[in-house]
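sorry to bug you again but im stuck and you know this stuff better than me. theres a chain ive been looking at and ive put its sequence and its fold in token form underneath. id like you to explain what the token line says about the fold, in plain words if possible. anything you notice is useful, everything is just below.
___
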Amino acid sequence: MIRSTLPPRRSGRSRQAPPGQSSHVAAIACSSQARAVQAASGRRYAVVGGGFAGVAVAWHLLAQATATAPVQVQLFDLAGLGGGGSGAAGGLLHPFSPSGKLLWRGEEAMADALQLVQAAEHAARADEGLDPSAQFVWRQPIMRPAATAKQVKQFLKVQKAKAAPPAGGPAHVSCLTAREALHLLPGLSQQPVPQPAAPLARQGRGDMKAAATAAAGQPGPAALLIKGGLVLHPVRYLRALWSACQHQAATAGGSSATLVHERVTSLALLEQQQGPFDAVIVAAGAAVATIPEIGDRVPLELCQGYTLDLAWPDPAPSVQPGMADTVPSASSSHYQASGSRGLVYHAWAGRLVAQAVLADDESMLPPELLRWKQQPR
């Protein structure tokens, strides 16, 4: 979060201040006049980034707008909504790690995320500009089959706690044997990649138990099953959530939500050309490194991910007749992939940042969200 207050732009010619009045005082006077005009039209906020985090904080800012205290939000992203990493995300929404552990603040974050999903669904039904047949939410279980011996060991810990499995609000996780996984997802082929056994002296109880289970041929955990999670189509979800932002602005009266297809190369330049703003919220993901004022202060570790979108070619024959004879029927669909942490935290982080911005009090944020400020410049 960046709070920026800059003096007004200067003309090309320099001019000496009148006697008894410094140029600094004149700048403050001009700045105060600009703020007075701004106060009459409501609080103004700039959000840089049209992904999960940016649209979520915009929604929470506009949720506090009223007719007497309007809020104007301008969201800046050259690629539009979901044009960056958020649009390429897998869309798995649940509060668990790949090993089945409940994430830090996972239950709270999941509840906030479900609130925004509900708001997006309401907006999609009410907005004539959105295709009502373009589904973006699937409420079906998510399965994560074990791919390595290490994952089997991690799943054993979840199985051990089956009397009190990790819960994340409406979502909960359980373990499946290979037979149970195959029953839910016919055709699933599980061939865990063998890993070198640790030396006996370094083996923990978990390693020894996993080895004993495999040696005895007992059915160990072969997959995690997450119920209560969601699968989202990222771009469609973001469009619907932005529509919800616009609905909130229209309902409050005097408020606005504006999408600006521009790249932000400098916060100072943004303030000069589009401001003044009460606050500028940067939620630009990996692109934050291109913003000079904060690019070298935020500790980022970039990584490369892959999302495969598979579709049959148009001339390909239908496989449905053959599937009816060879594949047993299943009561529901299951999705295989790893967890997605950015999605589960987007609504929770957006709510906290919006509260801190509206109160002009950064101390309202958890210290974990401010660790980046402790990094040496």
